[in-house]
Amino acid sequence: MPKLVDHDQRREELVRAVWEVISRDGIEGATVRKVAEEAGVSVGGLRHYFDSQRGLLLFAAQAIARNVGARVLAHVRRDGLAGPERARLMLEEFLPLDAWRRVELDVWLACLVRSRVDPSMAELRETSWVGERHVCRLAVAYCRDARPPEDIRAPLGDARLERWAARLHVYVDGLTLQAGMFPEQLPAEEVRRGLRRELELVVAG
Amino acid sequence: MPKLVDHDQRREELVRAVWEVISRDGIEGATVRKVAEEAGVSVGGLRHYFDSQRGLLLFAAQAIARNVGARVLAHVRRDGLAGPERARLMLEEFLPLDAWRRVELDVWLACLVRSRVDPSMAELRETSWVGERHVCRLAVAYCRDARPPEDIRAPLGDARLERWAARLHVYVDGLTLQAGMFPEQLPAEEVRRGLRRELELVVAG
Fold first, then answer.
1. Structure confidence by residue, pLDDT tens digits, B9-34
2. Which uninterrupted H or E stretch holds B30?
3. Which end of chain B, N or C, is less surrounded by CB atoms within 10 Å?
4. A94 and chain B: CB distance < 8 Å anywhere?
5. Regarding the domain with residue range A1-51, which homologous superfamily does it belong to in the CATH classification?
């Protein structure tokens, strides 16, 4: 299926170009024209992927959902990790701890804010909520040596653990927001320390 | 000082008009012209307060900082409240639990996102961080019957309590973000319950 491979590869190249433009010009300065220039393609050649600033944001947000999902899954599948360590690595994938994930957060927040007035972003918002809550449930299950939920929407069997998952979800979102918007107040080491302490609380119950 | 009174009253009327326009048209649709129409003044008459969309946002953000500060202070001064109850009332002032505070959050997030590329918003960002951290320190001190910090920038005397204040700050920001962006997942009652549980954790230490 050579066509399919080309298609995936082109998509990857475009994601990289979008990231490049957003890092340099901010979300508001990221236009279809600039992405086309960065990627070395015509504006018309982008039409299959997006053809407006809104479409560009949606394209970027979908790429983030895919990338975060894949990174989290890699930690789920790794051998030989202690439960709390696995939980920590999974949750760190949401935090803006490097330049790439910082762009992810900028795009993500912009989409969230816009989704309040743009119904076309509502589905993505719902998917991201469900996905992040699932990862938090997995993290709590790993920390407490409990049975992980089988379905992405299923709560944890134990109501107390389910409450911890909801708390962890709130905490991770707060940490993400603070790390992204107040980097001078919360350097990466402080962010990592906060998450570690939080998981110690989950382990202690 | 009749002039001063007029000035304050005009500012209040404008804040109300800005809120009205943002609730109706969203942040991106809020323009100087629309606010002038809503307030029944000329565009020129607004120039003293703001003369661009950026100035409008900054004006709105300053109003939020003033309003939240005044509401929190009212709880600090109320007689006869138990410590955790006072803490809860103070922190609820940050949460989008009604239509007015929901607009506050929309404006606030928009300013935060924009402050990443607009240095004129950096001071407000810094002030808001310091203010919210101070309120979290007060809340922890009230919950644990400890001595509140005397200065807005001073940490709590006990390093363990200071860590709780940092945690509470992260939690409140996460709860604010989730309540604002995912109201269908997190109705107001759930938000209040989350905050109450969090403060129980602080009390238990």
1. 888 899 989 988 988 888 778 999 99
2. none
3. N
4. no
5. Homeodomain-like (1.10.10.60)
**pLDDT tens, per residue, chain B with 205 residues:** 555 557 788 888 999 899 889 888 887 789 999 999 999 999 998 999 998 988 998 999 999 999 999 999 999 999 999 999 999 999 999 999 998 899 899 888 888 888 877 888 888 888 999 999 999 999 999 999 999 998 999 999 999 999 999 999 999 999 999 999 999 999 999 999 999 999 999 999 8
Identify residue B44 by its one-letter amino acid code.
G
Nearest to B142 by CA among B97, B60, B84, B200: B84
Q: Is A107 on the interface with B (CB under 8 A)?
A: no
The rounded distance, in Å, linking the Cα atoms of B91 and B87 is 6
Fold of B65-204: Tetracycline Repressor; domain 2 (1.10.357)
What's chain A's length in residues? 205
Nearest to B129 among A28, A129, A182 (CB): A182
**Gap from A82 CA to chain B (nearest CA, Å):** 25
Q: Does domain A57-204 have CATH number 1.10.357.10?
A: yes
Interface contact B170, partner A, CB < 8 A: yes
A65 has a chain B CB within 8 A of its CB: no
Nearest CA in chain A to B25: A117
Q: Per-domain residue ranges for chain A? A: 1-51, 57-204
Contact A171 B166 (CB under 8 A): no
Q: How far is CA A6 from CA A10, A13, B4, in A?
A: 6, 10, 68
- Cα B36 from Cα B49, distance rounded (Å): 11
Contact B118, B174 (CB under 8 A): no
